[in-house]
Model the fold of this input.
Amino acid sequence: MAGLSLKTLLSPKYGSLPAVKALCEASGDTLCVVDAAGKSLLGNLDEHRSDPVERVPVLLDGLPLGFVLGTSPLANALAIMLAHLASRETESRALSSEVLHLYREANLIEQLSEQLAALLDVEGVSQCALEQAQRIIPATSGGVLIMQDANSPLRHAASFGTANDELIDITGPLSPASRLATSILERGTAEIVNDCGSDPRASESERGLGALICAPLRAGQRTVGMIVLANSTAGASYSAANLKLLNTIALQTAAAIANSLLCAEMVQAAGISAAFAAELHAASTVQQMLLQSASRETPGFHVESVYLPASEVGGDFFFVSSAPDGSVIAIVGDVAGKGLTAAMRVAMILGALRRETSHDPGEILSGLNNALSTQDQLGFTTACCIRVWPSGDYALANAGHIAPYLSGRELTTPPTLPLGLVPAQTYELVRGHLAPGERLVMMSDGVPEARSQTGELYGFERLAALTLKPARDIAEAAQNFGQEDDITVLTLVFAAPVSP
Amino acid sequence: MKILIVDDEPHLRTLIQQTLEDLEDDGVELFTAANGEEALEMIRLEQPKLVFLDVMMPKINGFDVCHAVKNELGLSHIHIILLTAKGQEFDRQRGQEVGADMYMTKPFDPDALLAKARSVLGLQPAGL
Done:
């Protein structure tokens, strides 16, 4: 904005011209206004006048804007009035300048907000902030340094400019390892260093930066980095107003950067979650396939099995095989724990059962116990195994599992440790006989431990009657009551004795 | 080349005038008007190349002035930029109907205002 001149003050666009003109005319053309160079601006002096002509300066801040030529009292009065008008006009222009400056700032901040709202990458946000900062704060170089998280080192996200008349490196005026940068970050407040050359924290290369202004990027309690501007122009310095502006920019930038970092984390987490979900789904498919092939039809027996895992993969298992003598062998078990770890152990157990050559329930459980006991930190597994001969005779062994039900009655089995805790265990056989049409039910604890929304357990009292129903009905009754754990039900109905 | 600034608020006229003062070095003359009637009179008389025209004015508002200039006075070549206060719902459709060339919101961005004036008048951007 140009400085005020007497010519400008007397131009038609200012309202004072008619008044000054009228005064000159009223004086009878005895007054004339000239600029500092003596060029006439207003009025004409009568060349033939006899009165002495005075040259009265029109002063603004002690400096003459021009002169009023004329006789003493009138020339003095007009000079004083013009000086007053000039002073008022200067004040008005200063006020206007201040308002325009505020307009400029308000618009820049608004633009910055709009631009930042549309950005979700740290580099884009940093570049945008730096460009806007450069528009309102004089700088020859600048940069934005970012911390990925509280424990990460600073890294550059955007930079511009030159320092010491050379193109700055990609890290901007301050490098991520700068002591000056670290010190400002630790203090957590914006700072002006108007003489980097004498600041003990500045490195050799930073001493040539001249004036420096820096604000930490704080989003809530978290500091995500800093924005820094430097001006290596001779005599340049930063003011408190500059600091306030940079702080305002830093506040908006910090929120946008925190959002960008959060967004990046969420995208990464979503990717991991999707990959994990795919793996879990694959594991579930494999487990279903393993369990589907774990049941073999045996003449004279009707075996039904239902498996309802509580999540994608479960820790229950069952296995049905037959012996050369026509007997059927069934085992139902429950691996402690849940998720993929339990599912892996189920796969291991099913593999071991497929390789098992013995058909004796006690030996089968001992073999499994020995296999599981060699696996450190795998926890325990409960299982119950039964062999039923074509005659209807049966023998069963139990390793800490729920005892089977026969025609609605719980069979008594001796107390034993679950599998995988102590090696070289033996499992006592319980013998009995199945009449034709009798239903033997084996299940996991997911059935009696089903829990309603009010917290009530399904319990053993209701279980006895339930075991008179088919496997699907038993499993679904427990599930509908309130599934808390994997549910496995296996029913074995003895059709009729087979003649040898 | 002439620019007319029309606003019923004196301080806004001053601010716009001061923003555009740099153009005087390029021979641009600045005029002001305090209402719609005065604006139409100045436009007829001075035929400015560019008019910054406030929308909300008593008696004759900016839309009516714009419509008259563009459609009734045969001065459709005059570039008219409507000025509307931020927060007021600006009727874009009405602005287009009356033939306004563009609109800017108040508080205006001084840099954008000056740049626009330079562009309309065919002057070099500042600093070149």
User: Anything to note?
Assistant: Chain A has three domains: 6-110, 119-264, 293-494. Chain A touches chain B through 15 residues (CB under 8 Å). The first strand of chain A starts at residue 31 and ends at 35.
